[in-house]
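LAB NOTEBOOK - FOLDING QUEUE
OPERATOR: T.R.
BATCH SIZE: 2
PURPOSE: Compare the predicted C-alpha cell outputs for two unrelated chains run back to back under identical settings.
PRIORITY: normal
REVIEWER: second-year student, initials M.K.

ITEM 1
FIELD SEQUENCE / FIELD STRUCTURE:
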Amino acid sequence: MKRFLLIIASLFVGGIFLGGSKAVAQNAQQLTLEDITGGKYNPQYVYGVNPMKDGESYTQLSDDSKRIIRRSFKTGKEIEVLFDADQARGDAKLKAIDGYIMSPDERRILLRTQTKPIYRRSYTAEYYIYDVQNKKYEPLSDGGPQQMPLFSPDGNVIAFVRDNNLFLVKLLFGNAESQVTKDGKFNEVINGLPDWVNEEEFTTARSFDFSSDSQMLAWVRYDESKVPVYSIQEFKGAYPTRQEYDEYPGAYNYKYPVAGAKNSDVTVMTFDIKNRVTRTLKLPLDSDGYVPRIHFTSDPAKLAVVTLNRHQNRMDIYMANPRSTECKLAVREENAKYVPETAYGSLKFYGDHFGYISDRSGYKHIYWYNLNGKLERQVTKGNYDVSAFYGYDAQNGRFYYASHQESPLRTAVYSIDKSGKERKLSTEVGTNNATFSTSMKYFLNIYSSATQPPVTTLRDAANGKVISTMVDNKALKDNVTPLLGQKEFFTFKTSEGVELNGWMIKPRNFDASKKYPVIMYQYSGPGSQEVTDSWNMGFYPGGQWESNMANQGFVFVCVDGRGTGSRGADFEKCTYLNLGDKESKDQVEAALYLGSLPYVDKDRIAIWGWSFGGFNTLMSMSEGRKVFRAGVAVAAPSNWKYYDTVYTERYMRTPKENPTGYAVNPIERAANLSGDLLLIHGTADDNVHFRNFTEVSEAYVQQGKMFRQQIYTNRNHSIFGGNTRLHLFKTISDYFVEKLK
C-alpha cells in the first residue's frame, strides 16, 4: 500500500496566507482538466542523475534517450558523451534506449531496451553490453529478455534473472553464459527476484548480490508454490487493446498472499563462481519469516542478511559466511509494535561500518555500527525525525542526511561529524532533497515550497554553497501562479486534544462573507504525509486540480490525522492493530472544525481519497457523525483481510490474532454510511483487488444504501492509460459539482 499520490503543505497555526491574489483578472486563463491531466503545468527536474566513481561527475540520459552524457558536478555542464545511438555500432541498430547501468570501472555500459513492466518495480528488457572505448555493443544474452542485471565488483561478470532462474555472463570468456539455478518456475520458485508481496511492500526488485572479491554470488530463493493464487480477469479493452480477448475474456493468475495466508518460504543461497558449488545458508529464520535485504559487505566473508519475523517487530542483521554457511547475529532491532520499513530501507555499508535509521528513541535517527554489530554511536539526536540517510564520508568523518528538525512539515539537508557538530547545508525554507556525488563533495539539491516550484541547484557539500542553478522553473511559476488558488496552512485541536496540521486552497476571488462548500482530500496511511511545505500540494503538482475546483467556488482542504508520519513513533504508531478508527475520527473532527469557520457551509462538506485514502473515505463517511454530504473512494481497500500479508500484518497482525481490529472496516460499517458516495476501481488492480469493490458495494446494496460506481476496464491501481485519467478526474469533478453546488 505505497503512497503514490504526492501532496503538500504546512505548519503554521490558523490560516497563514501564502499565495494567490484577488487582483487577478476575472478573465484570466483557467486551469483545465485537459492541461492538468496532460501534464502541461508539471515542473521540470534534472532526471536520472547517476554519480560516477571519480566523485566529480555524473551521467545522465539525454531527453531524446539517444545519448548518455557525462556532466560535471562543479558546473553541471557536459564533459563528454559516453554513448550516442547514432554513432554506436552493433547489429541491433538501436535508435534509443530506455535506461542504462554503468560497470564499476565505467568501461562498459549495459543498455536497456524493449522494457516491459510487470509490477510496480519489476520489468523485463533486452540488454546490450556497450564498450565505451570502441563504441560497440552486443547482446547480453540471446536466450530471451532479462531482469535486473548486475555487474560484479571487478566488472568481469554480469548476473541476471530470466524465467525465475539466475544466469552468469563472463565477459573475459567471450561473454560465455552459464545457468546458476534450474528450479525456477512461474508461480512456483523464484531465484534472485522478490515475489509480488516482497517487491511491493519491501520496496525492492533485486534479491541477489556479488561478494566484494567477485568470487561468490548470493541470492534469496522464494518458494511460492504453496501461496494461494489470485486471478484477475482481463478484457479486450483499449490502450492497449488485448485482441486475444476479443471473443472470451482471459485471466492473469499470480501468487498473492492475503492477511493470514501462506507466504513464500525463503532461503538464502550462495554460489561459488569458480568451483560452481551451491550452498544454503544456515540462517536462523522463522519458518514464516522474511528476508527483505541481503548485501555483501567489504569483507567477502561477510554477507549481511536482514531478517524479519512475521509480525515485523524484530529485525535481525546476520553476518553470514557464504562458504561455511554459518550465520552470526550482529544486530537485533526490536519494537513493541513494528519496525518501520525505513530501518532496512536506509541500510548503508561503508568499509567496515554500516548505518541505518531506527525509531528506537521514539524518533527516527541514524545509528552507526561496525561490521561485528557493535554500536559505535547514535549519529543524530532530538525530538524530530530523520527522513533520509544520504551517506558517510570517511575522509572527513561526516554523515549526510535530511531531517524534519525545523518542522514536521519541512525538510532540510544537514551534515554532522562524529563529535556531533552539525551543519545545515540547505538554507531555503520548505522541502529539500539531495543527491550526493560518490565523493560526498557535491550534491544536487531539489527545493520547493507551497508557492515555489522545484529549484534544482548544484552545491558544495562542505558548506551548502550554491555552485550553479540547473533548473529554476521560473517560467512555470510565472505562468501557473496566477491560475492557482490561495494557499493557506493551519493547525487545530480535535475534541480529544490532538493537534493536527492541514492545508487549504481557496478561490482566487475568495470572499470571506460568503459560505463555501468544502472538499477534503486525505491519504491517512501509516507513516504517510500529505501536509508538507512543498510544491507537491494536492494530487497534481502545485495544487492544480484543487485550484481548478477552488476557482469553481470550492474550498479544498487536506488534514493529516493520527497515524501519519514525521511526528515521531507515538503519533505514527497509535493506530496499531486498529487501522481506520482514529484516522476516520480525525477526518470527521477536521470536518467539524471546518464547519465552524464563518466562510464554510457545514452542510456541504465532502471527502475523497485514493487507495488507503479511499478506505478512510469510506470509514469517515460511516464513522457515525453525519458530517459529509458526499464522498469519492478510488481503489479503496474495504476489508484488510483482502489485502496482502506484509503490509496488513505489519500494522494489524493476522485476522486470527486480531479479529476485533479487522472488524473495523467499511463493510461492517455499511449500515452507518451517510452521504452520497461514488465508488471507483480498476478491474485489473493487482494491488487492491477489484474484489474490495465488489464486496463493499454488495454490502451497501444489502443495507439499502444508494451509491454510484465507475469501473475502469483493465486498469491497475494507478488507473491511467489513453483517455482514462482525464475521464477519471472529470467524473470526480462533475460529481462534486453536482452534489455540493
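ITEM 2
FIELD SEQUENCE / FIELD STRUCTURE:
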Amino acid sequence: MKFPIFNIDNPESLEGFELDHALARRTSVGDIPTRAAKAYGDRRALVDDRGELTYNQLETQANRFAHALTGVGVASREAVAVMAPNCKEYMVAYFGITKMGAAATLVNMLGGEHHVVYALKQTEPKVIVIHADLLPVLKTAAELIGFVEHVVVIGAAQDDIDAGFPGAQLHDFDEFVAQAERFAGDDVDVEAPLEIAIADRQIAQCLFSSGSTSDPKGIMTSHLTVYISGLSSATTLNIQRRQQQPVTTIALPVFHTAALNMIVIPFLQMGGRVHMLSGFDPEVFGRTVQESQTTHGMGLPIMLQAIHDYSVKNGDKLEHLEFLGYGMAPVPESLYRSLRARFPHADLVMASGMTEATPGTLCQWPGYDESKRFTWGTMTAHTEASIVDPTTNEHLPAGVDGELVLRGPAIMEGYLKPDNSVFAGGWLHSGDVGNIDADGAFSFTDRLKDIVKSGGENVSSVIVEQVVLDHPDVLEVAVIGVPDEDWGERVTAVVVPANGVPESAAAQSELRDSIMQYAREHLNSSHRPRDVWFVEQLPRTGSGKIQKNKIRAK
C-alpha cells in the first residue's frame, strides 16, 4: 500500500473531522506563546524601555490582537504589515498576526521611503502596525497606499494621532488590543486562541531584503520553517529550558531574520527573557547586558565590542555571560583575543545564515576546534550544505572553492517575485563562495558579486579586508574592484581611519602609504590594494551589512 499524504490545500474550508484533525496537529508560529504561557506562566518574557510582558500577558495580548484583526476584516493568508523599532508591541503584533493565519509582513524601514512603499505595494496590507515616530514616512506616501484600511499606532495616545490617511481608520495600539471585543463581537472569547486550521507551509512571515543591489526582495517563510528553525537555533546556541532563566539583550532590528528567527523566537520557545533595545548605543547595550544579567550576548562584532568595553570600564567580568555569538562580519583578531581573555567563562562562537534559509544554517559550537575558528562552522541540525560550480551546478569535492548551496526545512517558500533559478538543481543558491573541508567546516571566500577580478586572478575582498583591518590606524574597511584598463579591476580599499579622516592631503598620503606598505608585507601581489580611499563611515543596511554597491556607485 501507499500511505496517504495529509496536506491542507485550503485551510479556511475545513470543518468537522477535517478541522479537528488539522487543529490537533497544527504547526503554527502563533502557538509559540500559547504553549510558552502554559509552561512558563508569569515569567517575564519581553522587556523594553516602556515596560515588560510576562508569558501569560504576551499570550493574552496576542490573542486579543488576533481577534481584533479578524474583526476588522483581515482574512487568513492576507498580509498585515509591521513597521516599528524593537519593542514588546512588535512581538504582540507578530504573534497576533500569525495566530489568525495572516502573514506578518515585516518592513525594513531603514531602506528609506522608496523601499517602504515598494514593500507595501507588493503585499497590499489592509492593516499596518506602525510606531508613532515612523508615521511621517507613511503619511508622505499615503496616496500611494490607498489599499490600507486601518493604521494601528504604537507609542501615541489616541488623541495625539492625527489624520492623514484618506479612507483609513487610525487606532492606538493599546486601545486596539484592549477593545478587541468591539471588533470581534461580545460573544467571542478574545483572550483564547482562534480555533482555525493553518497549513504547515502556509506563509507565516514575509521579510524584505535590504535592497542593497536592487529593489528589496520579499522572502516568504512558512509556519513549519519558522517553528523548526527556532528549535534548531535553540540547540545551536545552547538556549536551554531551565529554572535559571536564559536572558538575552537584543539591539539588532527584529525585522531582520537573525534577530527574529535566531534569537527572539528560540528564546521564547525555551522560556527565556528578551530585553529589546530600540537601537544600538554601545553604553546602553553594555549596561543592559550587565543589569539584565544577560546569559547570551549576541549580535554584530561591534556589539560584542560594546560588551567588552563596558566590562572593562566598570571592572565587572560579567560572570553571568555563558555565550557570546556573532555573525555578519569577522571579529578582528585583537577583539577575539580580548574577548577570550576577558570572558573565559563564555563560549565564543560565530554563526551565519541568510533570510532565504532562516538562520542559523552554519555555526561553530562550544569547544570548537580553535584552528577552525575562522570558518563559519558546520551545518546546523535543520540544514544540509554543499559546494557547487556556479556555472555548471556540479558538486565539488572537499576543499575546492565554489558556491555554497543549502537545502532542508529551513528554506523559504520563495520570493514574492518568483525566481526559479535560486532553486536550480534542487538546492537554494546562496551567492556565497568558499569551500567545505573534510570535517564539514565551511570557509567563506567572498560573495560571488564581490570577488575582484584583477590581472586574471579572482581576488577575495574578504581576505584583503582581514589584513587591512589589522593595521592599527584602520577602524573599518571595505574592499571593492574599480574598473582599470590594465588590471581589469583595481583592488581598492575604502577605509574608515581609527582617528578620523586626516585633514591635510599630506597626512592622508602618509596614512595611505602606511596602509599599502602593510598590505604589501602581508598579501601577495594580486591581492594587495592598488589604491586606498578614506571615508568617515561606510554605508550599511539595517542589519549592519556594508553596502558595497553604494560604495561602487561613488
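REVIEWER COMMENT (ITEM 2): Residues 505-522 form the longest helix (18 residues).
FOLLOW-UP: none requested
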